[in-house]
Amino acid sequence: MAKRSIILLPDPVLRRVAASIERVDDEVRQLADDMLETMYAAPGVGLAAPQIGVSRRLIVIDVSEKDDEKMPYVMINPTIVKRSDEPNVHEEGCLSIPDVRVEIERPAEIVVEYLDRDGKRRELAASELLATCVQHEIDHLDGRLLIDYMSRLKREMVVKRFKRLARERDGL
Ligand code: NI
């Protein structure tokens, strides 16, 4: 496994709609393993492939508590097939937009269909943090970011700040 670097706002790869994965092979499994390692090292509870610069429909999640056993999910081509009417508000963060927190209202419970790392079709009913996390990561696959849930003014301020940070990183 290898840790990859996390792509930060405003890199355009984060805004691309990611491509479906046609075949779950060793290359895809390697990508999933690298993403898990990258996510645990960050540390974070979820990561989408575009966040390491790979525009493909793959997400990894682990919302287990620090001292509990790890509970990694690898979801390939995830699709939400059911959403509860009841909403839930969570304060979300994103490894691609460090130090920004946004309160986001999403359906409290969902059912997600996906392929696991063996290419098997799975269905998972998720609630609470797991439901939030799945929806956040699938947003990434559609080029949507948590700043899109902010007011336009606040979003523009965040983007401006990250553009400046990117210029500083590039030494321009
Ligand atoms: Ni994120």
Structure description:
The protein has helices at 26-41, 128-141, 152-169; strands spanning 46-48, 58-61, 73-83, 87-92, 102-107, 109-115, 121-127. It is α+β, with helices and mostly antiparallel strands and 172 residues long. The longest helix has 18 residues, at 152-169. It is globular and about 45 Å long. The chain starts with 25 loop residues before the first helix and ends with a helix. Nickel (II) ion binds at residues 94-96, 136, 140.
Task: Provide a concise account of the structure shown.
The protein has 172 residues and is α+β, with helices and mostly antiparallel strands. It has helices at residues 26-41, 128-141, 152-169, and strands at residues 46-48, 58-61, 73-83, 87-92, 102-107, 109-115, 121-127.
What tags apply to this protein structure?
two-stranded antiparallel sheet, 3 helices, alpha+beta, binds nickel (II) ion, globular, five-stranded antiparallel beta sheet, single chain, Peptide Deformylase, 172 residues
Furnish the topology, listing elements before pairings.
Elements: H1 26-41, E1 46-48, E2 58-61, E3 73-83, E4 87-92, E5 102-107, E6 109-115, E7 121-127, H2 128-141, H3 152-169
Antiparallel strand pairs: 1-2, 2-3, 3-6, 4-5, 6-7
The protein binds nickel (II) ion (NI).
Residues 94-96, 136, 140 line the site of nickel (II) ion.
